[in-house]
Amino acid sequence: MTTSRQKILSHLKKARSASAREIARALKLSAPNVRHHLSVLCSDGRVEMTAVHNREGRGRPEKVYSLSEAALGDNLSVLVQAVLTQAGSTLKMEAVARLVLDDGAFAGLSMNRRLALLVEKLNEMHYQAKWEAGAGGPRVLLGHCPYARVIDAHPEICTMDAALLKNALARDVSPLKKTETPTKGMCPFIFQIG
What we know:
Layout: H1 4-15, E1 18-19, H2 20-27, H3 31-44, E2 47-53, E3 62-67, H4 69-72, H5 76-87, H6 90-100, H7 111-124, E4 129-132, E5 139-142, H8 148-151, H9 157-169, E6 173-177, E7 189-193
Antiparallel strand pairs: 1-3, 2-3, 4-5, 5-7, 6-7
């Protein structure tokens, strides 16, 4: 049996975008029911509000919804496969790391300044990074892997992450496996700075 949410997703896939009123009319559902399901789908990340239209006459503005980028899918895995096939070795992954993060901005900075700038740059790239002091030296923790959708097929991307840190900090970096099992989308490593 097809649920109301599946019907809404299917309608948005065909229509590209629609308001709750338009969806309700097309699917023969009540507008409040459709708004409830759209709210849940938005919080799940499958649908997003893309516009607000002022309606003629009385009433509140009408929100327009469409499928989110995550729900639409992408061809990222194919692109990553092609790039990594060309990059191949760890040495070349360091070259890829230099393209992803300009390590020239770190020259001449103290280690604390380098770590702060590194965390800032990584967070601009959606890593949810932080650093902490440790008995063996500083450690960098990545709370989110921005490559989570393709990392299972391409674990070598983790060597690029280590190379990013090594290049920026000008120190050896050792990825240590986290003791707890990371949740989906989290980086499974803590990076110990040598």
